[in-house]
Design a protein that fits this description.
There is one protein chain. The chain is an all-beta fold. The protein contains no helices and four strands. The strands form two sheets. Strands 1-2 form a two-stranded antiparallel ribbon. A two-stranded antiparallel sheet has the order 3-4. A hairpin with a 6-residue loop joins strand 3 and strand 4. The radius of gyration is 12 Å and the shape is globular. The mean pLDDT is 88.
Length: 56
């Protein structure tokens, strides 16, 4: 097992400069996944997409 795994964090620009943890997986996502994340800055659920292509 790979102890490091794949860590996904919120891809959005944060007004309080945080990089919130979304999920840690044993295997890398092969397709983008849309999730709801409780935003620490906005105090509500926000929609984010993880596992897609990384921006250049």
């Amino acid at each position: 097992m790979n102890d490091k795994g794949y860590i996904y964090k919120c891809p959005l620009r944060c007004p309080i400069n945080k990089h919130c943890f979304v999920i840690k997986l044993e295997e890398q996502l092969t397709h983008p996944l849309k999730v709801l994340l409780k935003c620490a800055a906005k105090k509500e659920d926000i929609k984010v997409e993880i596992g897609g292509k990384h921006p250049p």
